[in-house]
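[agent] plan:
  1. take the single chain provided in the ticket
  2. run structure prediction with default settings
  3. attach structure tokens to the ticket
  4. add a short note for the reviewer (M.T.)
[agent] executing step 1
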Amino acid sequence: MRGFGMLKINSTGWIEAERPAIGPFDALLEPLALAPCTSDIHTVYEGAIGERHNLILGHEAVGRVVEVGREVRDFKPGDRVIVPAITPEWRAVRIQGCGVPACHSEGALSGWKFSNTKHGSFAEFFHVNDADMNLALLPEGMTLEQAVMLPDMVTTGIHGAELADISVGATVAVIGIGPVGLMAVVGAVLRGAARILAVGSRKKCADLAIRYGASEIINYKNGDIVDQVLEATNGIGVDNVIVAGGPPEVLAQAVNMVKAGGTIGNINYFGEGDTLPIPRTGWAYGMAHKSIHGGLTPGGRERMERMAALVMNRRFDPGLLVSHVFRGIDKISEALEMMHHKSEEVIKPVVIV
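[agent] step 2 finished; step 3 output follows
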């Protein structure tokens, strides 16, 4: 089969690969809709997870089932399905009462398989492990553009709000309002935040952040974002921060803008550097009771079904994230480069296969 992948750090291209074989619990899919991710850019152009050779990219997909293993009960060839970006091994012992989130079932980040430890979805066919637990049926009436936002953008952004432990009536800052940050704004709204300060500079993203429920925009081009947030909150700071983008320094900014006793939820993929900064005074010399939670989004079927239920019950429309639509799998390379060289008008490109 043919797929578009990472040839090595700083290099992408089309490659030939063996059509995946499936085990008794697995499924083979063909893509219906695909979306490139900023994570792919970190992986290829920053070498964030190390060198990879001839590895097919892609972890945001809606597909059609081509073949299932003999033990798969709930899916059959022809089914149209949402494929989560994170596909844990649900039979792993470590997730059975040991307090280990399923996305880390075989070690840190082990649920992130596509374009990390195995070929991803930018191919004519792709493999899904543990199909009954890692696929969700595409609801009738949901568009492909909406659906392909669920596997990563929607669930990751909402997980930022979960990690930040937002309470009803809280004041929240969301740092970074690309597609994940925009879904973090949605997550903060769903958790009951009263005031949401969205940090970003691109007008298209800022306008959509307001549409999704942000109260105001903090533009880093107008000065230090910590100073702006503190000024906006009369020097108090915010109850919660969701870090959804930016270089390592944004973690320090989050610590400095959250109030004592507040919580930071990080869903940012830090692709560069050996360490992440925590400011000594901002953390009150280690005694500020400021919590930092960083997490990979939960994976699996139920998570996707819950995300789909939010959309089908009109809580929000993730299709608004889609700024560009391409037709045909050959357009994957163009869509990926659009994410690489992101212009003012780009939020999220999608390829309809």
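[agent] step 4 note for reviewer: The longest strand covers residues 258-266.
[agent] ticket updated
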